[in-house]
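ESCALATION

Customer reports they have been waiting on this structure for their group meeting. Please prioritize. Original submission:
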Amino acid sequence: MAAMLGVIMIARLIAMYQGSRTMLIFLVIIFLAVNIACAVLVAIGLKYMGAAEEGILSGMHMCGHGFYGDVQLLFSMVWMLNTVWEVLALCLSVWIAVKHFRDLRHLGPSTGSTIGDCFRVLIQSHVLYFAG
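Update from on-call: job pushed to the front of the queue and completed.
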């Protein structure tokens, strides 16, 4: 699921950067590095995760997992790497949005209204994604 959202994010950023091949290569390399690192960390973490335990407390069944070593640290690293990817994507989208709106302001209100409207809708949906 996260990989699918990452691919959608790359497609949106490439659209915002008007099909820049350099930006595409940069984003794909970063995306693959983050996802491969996360997959390796999760695999290592699952290897050292203990068996599930069930406890009964006052008639209620409670489930828990036992962890060996620093498994929770590995899972936190996965979360941090995904956060770094999201923050990078947010910064790139804000940067191009600010640059685009400066260009539109210098061109004047009559030119680029159709492109500006499309770009504005793309940015608004992008910001809604990050807000969610």
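Sent to customer with the following note: The beta strands are 49-57, 60-67.
Escalation resolved.
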